[in-house]
Protein 1
Amino acid sequence: MITFFVHGVPIAQPRVKACIRGKHAGVYDPGTANAWKNQVMSAGTTAAYRPDQATKFEIITGPVGLTLHFFLPRPKHHSRSNGELKPTAPKWHTSKPDLDNLVKAVKDAITQIGVIWVDDSQVVISWSEKIYADQNHQVGVRITIEKL
């Protein structure tokens, strides 16, 4: 099992865009999530090399379980003027970005690392949530990956 936290505001994987160049149609990734995916790759690489142990994390070749806890920033109107959270402030983040697109960006980034799993198609069990960050949680994502 490997667990790590990625600091920063989670960014969803954008949809591919279509374009026409001359007489040829094509699609491209707009790249708006690249900085976030680089942060995921950096944190994942650091966690996989386990500086506290003599050996690095062994790449998983079989089925994988993935747990993702996304902590998103709260809007200012959730707090009182003294900074205290209002009792009506929600726990769950129910607006954009979509949870499935957040998960896709993380899975793609972990696949690009090439040291945790071979391909994100190995994920057979997945649990994810998106909630507002509070005093107990920083903005980012906590990732847990386990070999099944």
Note: Residues 63 and 121 are 9 Å apart (CA to CA).
Protein 2
Amino acid sequence: MFFGSTDLMSSEHTSRFLTPFLRWLDPNISSAQLARAHLLMRKAAHVAEYAILTGLILRALRGWFDGFWSRAAVGLLPALIFASTDEYHQSFIASRTSSFGDLGVDCLGVFVGIVVCWCIHMVVTRRASGS
């Protein structure tokens, strides 16, 4: 994730492969639609990476805390700290921007990760109890 915060994953670099892909999907896409789709794909990637990070953190805490919500409460902190330090790191990269809006997108990913893990936890718990 730290690598993703560098210039190599900046908007201008990701557009090199996302723009041709989007144009392949829809050859008649306008420039405005292309820019909007590029932005949405980049933000969706942030949500996905922070959801995965949160899932891994909750998985790592499984043996330490009994209840799911205890793990979620403890796991929330390192994920949010990483999101904050990631945005801070981006403030030093000339081709990247650091904003509270991006931090909000990252935090959304953390909460999506918790919700997905809770849903998986509920399915596993129900199967184990035979319901």
Note: The mean pLDDT is 82.
Protein 3
Amino acid sequence: MSWPWIVLLALGVAVVLGAESKRLSGVASKLGGADVRRARDRNKRKANLTLIRTEEEEFAESVQRDLAELPTIEERDRT
């Protein structure tokens, strides 16, 4: 094999790798890459968190509940 064929082969491999790089990076991340590990660790930390409700939020919800329970009057057409 002469050197022009080796260069053409290398260029062909480079083109194929360039075209498939997005798909190959997706496969690599599914195999347990650093991003997947970071996301898994973050999800574990988030699972231990609890939501703390403020008094303002509780007050707003109680007002909404009270308004929803008020009786309504049907308005009649004045025709």
Note: Residues 3-69 form one domain.
Protein 4
Amino acid sequence: MDNQEELKPVEVFAGNSWDAGLVKSMLEDAEIESFLQDEVRGTLTPFLVGSGGFGAVKLVVSSDDYEKAKQVVDGYYQNINKA
């Protein structure tokens, strides 16, 4: 990463609190720091949360880790689609 480019928080996943927690755990296993955004709203109204819809719990990583995190999230979606 270029020294001139500043790090920014980037959303890498949005869904219900269960899926967001699972993906967060996968990111931690890959040594990628992340945090949940809007966790309370997604927990209080899980019936309104589609995959990334209104009230979704968002998983945010540093822009420096985005590419690696995206690979983890893509792997999660591939495994979900196999089931």
Note: The mean pLDDT is 83.
